Predict the 3D structure of the following.
Amino acid sequence: MRKVLAVSLLVCSQVVWAQAPGIPRQSLPGDSEMERRIKQEAFEKWALSPDDGKKADTAKEAVAIQEFYSKARHFVDLWQAFASELNDKKTVNAKLAKQISKAFHDLEKSDGWPVGGAK
């Protein structure tokens, strides 16, 4: 009698029924199958969304734009110094001209420089 009672308790226990693969999951009150699927789909979209990559790309673009404007500002400052020296002293500063040339070529090689179309 003890063995029969032990086996019946084991079979009827919640632990055994919870581990059975063929029994569907019990849903919470007010949680329909459709709502559960919508929530699951929304979570998967959130988890797999490429927004992090877009944010990283926009951050990289912002850094590239800032670098381009910095190079352009440096070129303009050198050009203004060259022009003011040329107007005031009526002489050409070769060192400053070389710096202007280097700054312009750095500006040309940067990512923000507009590339000309096919001619």
User: Anything to note?
Assistant: The mean pLDDT is 77. The two ends are 99 Å apart (CA to CA).
